[in-house]
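Standup notes
- DV: blocked on the single-chain target, sequence here:
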Amino acid sequence: MKIVVTGGAGFIGSHTQRLLLDQKHQVTVIDNLSKGTKQNIDTRSNFIKANLLDQKKIELALKGQDAVIHMASFIEVGESVINPTGFIENNILGTAKLLAAMRLSKVKKIIFSSSACVYGRPKKVPLFETDVLSEQENPYGLSKVSMEQLCALYHKLYNFDVTILRYFNPYGPGENHIPETHAIPNFIKATLNKKPIPLYWQGSQIRDFIYIEDLAEAHIKALEVKGLNYFNVGTETGVKVIDMLNSIFKIVGYKVPIQDLGERTGDVPFLVASAKKIKKELGWQAKVPLIMGLQKTIDFFYDKGA
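- DV (later): unblocked, structure below
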């Protein structure tokens, strides 16, 4: 297939495009490089530097394509609180313009990179795709809900094939966001540099950590389905943040001090996926155990000099 990956210069996009290419798909990456880096773009991909708000340019890039994997969005929760307008413009308006360009270019299949944050503050675990989406805690979450709804609307109005993948907590080699707000890369870099690790809630939050290669595989599986689909992408295993941190210490063979930052507004106490639906309908399941994924991620940062 001929597949466009928006945001392909980012962490998840870079892994997904490589897997697509390895499976002999033709890949075009669209990215404005505001968050991603050109080094993340595989040399086998066709690269178009463009902003999704430039609808005419996106229309031209989409001509003759079969599907879009849409990953181009701002993701920093804290930044969304400071700059909600920027998130609304980039994430929501950018998605609206992308969908409009797809319709005009006659590309009617989209896999959308969503997030478990759409569930808001969950009342139970595990979370199922049929659970009601709760009130959002920040503009980032609001933007993901709106992006999902826009995609679903294009299915209803224009018969698009839409698959929405709700990621839980991705991690793995190659994660270099600026700024980096995710726990695992920050914990690993601090540990390798023997610096104190800032920790909220004494690490009592429970999360479902999904290894990047498993997550990338879910996008390839999603290319096979039609209609409107929602899938959680997680391991179905909840892990306390402090236990994940202790696993990092065990792998490297030493501990570093922990800086107790107390509570943090907006954190949810637990996020764990039910992945029964994606297992049944796509034949996908997480394969990489946390300890193995952490080892690979530590090796990556060690080789980079942290």
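- Follow-up: The domain at 2-170+210-235 is CATH 3.40.50.720 (Rossmann fold).
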